[in-house]
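Sequence, please.
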């Protein structure tokens, strides 16, 4: 770590924030803020359509995170147009956008359909790239070959829902794939030279806090460019909600202060080169069962995490070896 003449620390990711932040990562590449715009392109997923299962993952309710303008009946172009207006009041300085294929499994269709949807998004003025959210079992060589070609013309990332590094948990939440499947998909995607991201849920039932923390070391071994974390929230209308009401003692939801301490310890063990996109989920309170964390927004939470890192004089990767 370098210290410049104003005594400001510069961390290995090239700035003075104490974690490798996603917003800075894009500022470094494009010199300006880049805004993600979500799209629901009408996909389903193999864990819902009967290929792997019909009930879906026990925590899943896509309505809880889909912005209101995202409706599969609208074209990709219209969703981008409405998404840009939706974000403009808050992020007026953004002029570049990433089309975020978010809802369900966005590589779960024949290549020809994917090509039409992705390329429609890229035609929209100001859209500089794609983020494609999917499952580890919804990718193959043909799609990766196409995505690799596309990634030469724009920013492109494939983001896998992994959720946990433990197969006992993946079985319990009915993911319909193993951690080994996830590792294989991540390694294959990264080997194609495609930016590879992953999403994890912290606080899943059946895991001890120590097991949760140990995931920082496991994740650090994967060839990931970006990660997203969110604390387990019990979302209404899900199988997990039923489980929670039946046996609440089985769940140890993180209170905010505990999560803050946990995420600091987690970050200290996380590989410095992995870019962290988010620390928390932001399901609207009307979708949630049980106690939330009050009215803290994701950006306020990031500020609190950075303040605590500063107070403790610690940073992402301090304990990474
Ligand atoms: S979380 Fe993703 S993989 Fe699981 S049921 Fe929902 S859409 Fe399908």
């Amino acid at each position: 770590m370098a210290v410049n003449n104003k005594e400001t620390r510069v961390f290995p990711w090239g700035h003075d924030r104490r974690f490798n932040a996603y917003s800075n990562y894009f500022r470094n590449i494009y010199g300006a803020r880049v805004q993600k715009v979500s799209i629901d392109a009408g996909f389903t997923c193999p864990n819902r359509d009967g290929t792997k299962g019909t009930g879906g993952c026990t925590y899943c309710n896509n309505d809880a995170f889909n912005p209101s303008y995202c409706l599969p009946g609208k074209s990709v172009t219209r969703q981008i147009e409405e998404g840009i207006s939706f974000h403009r009041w808050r992020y007026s300085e953004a002029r570049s956008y990433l089309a975020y294929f978010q809802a369900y499994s966005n590589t779960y269709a024949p290549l020809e359909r994917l090509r039409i949807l992705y390329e429609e998004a890229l035609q929209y003025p100001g859209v500089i790239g794609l983020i494609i959210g999917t499952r580890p079992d919804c990718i193959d060589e043909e799609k990766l070959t196409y995505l690799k070609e596309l990634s030469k013309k724009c920013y492109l990332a494939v983001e896998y829902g992994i959720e946990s590094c433990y197969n006992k948990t993946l079985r319990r939440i009915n993911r319909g794939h193993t951690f080994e499947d996830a590792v294989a998909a991540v390694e294959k995607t990264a080997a194609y030279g495609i930016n590879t991201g992953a999403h994890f849920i912290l606080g899943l039932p059946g895991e001890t806090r120590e097991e949760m923390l140990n995931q920082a070391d496991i994740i650090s071994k994967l060839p990931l460019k970006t990660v997203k974390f969110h604390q387990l929230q019990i979302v209404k209308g899900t199988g997990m909600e039923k489980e929670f009401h039946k046996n609440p003692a089985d769940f140890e939801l993180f209170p905010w202060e505990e999560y803050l301490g946990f995420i600091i310890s987690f970050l200290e063990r996380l590989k410095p080169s992995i870019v962290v996109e988010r620390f928390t989920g932001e399901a609207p309170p009307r979708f949630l069962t049980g106690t939330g964390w009050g009215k803290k927004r994701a950006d306020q939470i990031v500020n609190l995490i950075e303040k605590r890192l500063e107070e403790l004089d610690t940073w992402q990767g301090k304990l990474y070896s």
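The chain has a mean pLDDT of 93.
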